Amino acid sequence: MVAQNPLFQGGFTLRKFNATVINDIWPETLFFTAVAAAVAVVTERKIHDLAINNGLLTVLGTVLGLVISFRTSSAYERYQDGRKMWTNIQIASRNIAQIIWIQIPFERSDKDKNKMTTVQSVIEKKSMINLVQAFSVSVKHFLRGETGIYYQDLYPLICFLPRYANSVGPKTNADMLPLWAASEEEEYPLAKAPPASRSPSVTLDEMDGKSETGSWMRTLTGRGKMSRANSIDPEKALADIQSHRPLKPARNPPPPSIYDYFPFLRIFSIFTRCFRRDNKRSRRDSLGRKIKPSFTESNVPLELTIYLNNYLAHCLRNGWLQPAAATGLMNAIASLQDTLSNLDRIGNTPLPFAYQAHLRMSLWLYLLFLPFQIVSSLHYITIPGTAFASFLLLGFLEIGQEIENPFNYDLNDLDLDSFCLAIQRELHEITAHTTPDPATFIFTSWNQPFAPADRRSAEEIITAAAAANGEYTHSEQPDVEPGILTLRRTLLKSWRDVDYITRQQ
């Protein structure tokens, strides 16, 4: 996703130009401009009068403008819904992590009276919170049509999960659990994988030879050379886990070509296409519009929510969670599942093809006959007028089509990688909390609970209360009787002071 108001922040770079829809609409705009030029030249040179009555121009233009506006508005609504769904994932992930880390005790015993050490409890809870982080990462790959679990940002988080239904005896593909079976490949069989085989390093060239993958380290312009602003490598914050097969990069944008930055050169691609020997899928269609990747089904997020629900049931069986906390955890997991379904709906339910085709054909016919209707009044201005009308209407139509599925790698799509990193930072911040006893930090000299009415520290107040036989006294109000009434009056005075201070502007 490009920065806010990128045209007014810094220079106009090729990356910002590529974020516009000019690359998508220039062939059609050029065609209708050429038609307008031909009509204007033929009419103005008195070769033949091509002007027609413009009675339908206003009516059809208004109707078509309203339809295109509805098309763009509905696409933007899906764009906003996608962002809201990711906010729901972030909130639910935060709630699940806090319940697991704080509500489940560190020192506990199961129903068979087997005591769990604090170290074991910390490892268990941190591992389950890693599954919460893995959920958002798996959703990101799911929405981008990237199936499987063998990614640099996903595999280290879930590789400890069981791989076979039977933990004892010989393990075959028939016993492989769905989470792993969906990612199995004959080239890298899991059943025959050595237990200590290190994950081989994969270069960009090797990955591009197998699939259309890139690298997180690749900049948004698709070049292998890193810039200072894009030198971040989030995989360094993950575990270094051995794998029996190469792990795909966390970010796999399709490699751009020179035609994306110099669209006028795409004319020559038509003549050079027959001489290509590679079978790489083109990023654009014959009209220059971006080709969206196919949307595939993935069971990885579903499997992760099953493991989280299983952990909830395990905690309930052993009495480690209070009913209220268990209800909150159950609702948070259900929120993840509900959000996943809504994201699936947004990404896998485009507008009907008949609606899109009819709208585009209607627009083409309108722009095709536009020069014939305005040439009698505008003369040679018909050429720039048609070009501007084509650019305006086709641009809005293409914007609606581009943001309809905002989960890919286009510069106008949602920054799913940034969302996942934000969730990762929040979960690590939660697990960094030491869950101390409140008495260790509340009744100290650093705490002034009744300020500004009473600026004594909690330690001083307790000392004074102990000297007064356990009653709270306010040193600045000796005329007030000691006890709970003094405490309440102090709180009221604090409210008055704060209300007065904060309203002084």
Automatic annotation (TrEMBL):
UniProt superkingdom: Eukaryota
Matches recorded under InterPro entries: YneE/VCCN1/2-like (IPR044669)
Record's subcellular location: Cell membrane
A GO molecular-function descriptor: chloride channel activity
GO CC terms: plasma membrane
Keywords: Cell membrane, Ion transport, Membrane, Transmembrane, Transmembrane helix, Transport
Protein topology in the membrane: Multi-pass membrane protein
Major localization class: membrane
Keyword Transmembrane helix tagged: yes
Keyword Transmembrane: yes
Region annotated Disordered, chain positions: 191-217
Transmembrane stretches, start-end: 25-43, 50-70, 363-381
Coiled coil, from the record: none
One Pfam family it belongs to: Bestrophin_2
Protein name (Swiss-Prot/TrEMBL): Uncharacterized protein
